[in-house]
Specification:
There is one protein chain. Helices cover 37% and strands 14% of the residues. By secondary structure, the chain is of the alpha/beta class. The protein has a 7-stranded mixed β-sheet, sandwiched between helices. It has a 4-stranded antiparallel β-sheet with strand order 9-10-13-12, with helices on one face. The protein is globular, with a radius of gyration of 21 Å. Bound molecules: pyridoxal-5'-phosphate.
Length: 384
């Protein structure tokens, strides 16, 4: 059957030289980034400081809208930041941990940076409750839901677990959190671009992630969706002049907050990274995430099937409905296998308690999936 997603392969130079199986870590660079960064340099060189007014100031919001369109976020509800950890900090700074409602509930399969941030909030009164996974692959949803109670303030949770690609039951978590008056921060870093997301139908309070993986947007841009009713009333204490109603008034004294999305931003935005991420966003928009998801389910199933034939351990859910875009395979000597694969231009990575992570994306051929596994076989058959 013809795979029309493959038509975009020529947009990604690295696909000509490598077997690119690592979009869970860094999506391939679209050719259009050369032009976007050249245009950025040209604007700086020729328009100088006028570039702020003519283009750069609003870019942070425009890119937010482009990302937001991929998750059905209303216009103006997505701010842009440098990374997810900062997005979590902006959210945390909207809340007060000194009252009775000061509990933070999450799973130990969250991305560690996010956990380091919330752990550090203990000194401001936050009570962190971490729910441990039994198998290192799945999150025990019932225990997580039971832990969310009337004292819970925030539930920061990965939509898809970085290690195992397990898809959390976001709807159930949001439903329970709202029933008891808590807020959910859904980290969609490992889902947006490969699994369809609709923040409005989920009714999630906050969603954040970065563009460098499945969105092929490169490092330096993260996004924060804030549900519009919350966006109008929350007051982030991690703030700055970009969030001021009159930034060029340079007023002294407390901030007067502007409306979202700038309300959730703070200092000068990361203009080159914002420019660089746009070609990737537009390719993903055209490819359509629903189609990407169908292909991803097929290729991840193929990887599991091939790994099973060798009896290698799979650290990823077998149920396609619970599995994101990655298959973590812990074959014998997996860390060395990963190094050897990289040396042979099969681009993957290795993570403790996961093994080698293989992440085919919409631009990969089925034959590349097979070739990656054949390369593993060859490495394991060679004398060490
Ligand atoms: C689920 C998830 N959250 C967050 C991050 C990264 O966080 P940050 O943008 O703060 O570096 C990753 C990166 O691998 C991730 O997989």
């Amino acid at each position: 059957m013809a795979d029309d997603l493959l038509r975009c392969r020529s947009e990604f130079p690295i696909l000509e030289r490598t077997n690119y199986m690592i979009s869970n870590s860094l999506g391939a660079m679209p050719r259009g980034v050369y032009g976007a960064l050249r245009a950025y340099a040209e604007t700086w060189a020729t328009r100088g400081v006028r570039a702020w007014e003519e283009r750069w100031w609003m870019l942070a919001a425009e890119v937010g809208d482009e990302i937001g369109a991929l998750m059905n976020a209303p216009q103006g509800s997505v701010s842009t930041h440098q990374n997810v950890t900062t997005c979590q900090a902006v959210v945390a700074s909207c809340f007060d941990f000194s009252g009775k409602r000061n509990k933070i509930v999450y799973s130990d399969l969250n991305f560690p940076s996010v956990m380091y941030f919330w752990e550090a909030q203990r000194q401001y009164g936050a009570r962190v409750h971490m729910v441990s996974s039994e198998d290192g692959i799945t999150v025990p949803t019932d225990r997580l839901l039971d832990s969310i109670d009337e004292q819970t303030l925030v539930v920061p949770i990965s939509h898809i677990v970085f290690r195992s690609s397990y898809i959390n039951d976001a709807a159930a978590i949001i439903e329970k959190a709202h029933r008891v008056g808590a807020h959910v921060v859904l980290d969609t870093f490992q889902s947006l671009g490969t699994v369809p997301i609709d923040v409005q139908s989920l009714n999630v309070d906050f969603a954040c992630g970065g563009v460098l993986k499945w969105l092929c947007g490169g490092p330096g841009v993260a996004y924060l969706y804030v549900r519009p009713d919350l966006g109008r009333k929350l007051e982030p204490k991690l703030t700055g002049w970009f969030a001021h109603q009159n930034p060029f008034g340079f007023e002294v004294g407390p901030i007067r907050y502007v409306d979202p999305p700038f309300r959730f931003m703070n200092g000068t935005s990361q203009v080159p990274a914002l420019e660089a991420c746009r070609p990737g966003l537009s390719i993903i928009r055209e490819a359509r995430v629903e189609k990407i998801r169908e292909k991803s389910k097929r290729q991840t199933a193929r990887l599991i099937d091939l790994a099973d034939r060798h009896g290698w351990r799979i650290n990823t859910p077998r149920d396609p409905g619970k599995r994101g875009g990655t298959v973590s395979i812990d074959m014998p000597d997996s860390q060395r296998v990963c190094r050897e694969l990289l040396a042979r231009d099969v681009l993957v990575d290795w993570r403790p308690k996961a093994g080698v992570r293989f992440s085919p994306h919409f631009y990969n051929r089925d034959e590349e999936v097979d070739a990656a596994i054949i390369a593993v076989e060859a490495i394991l058959n060679e004398p060490v």
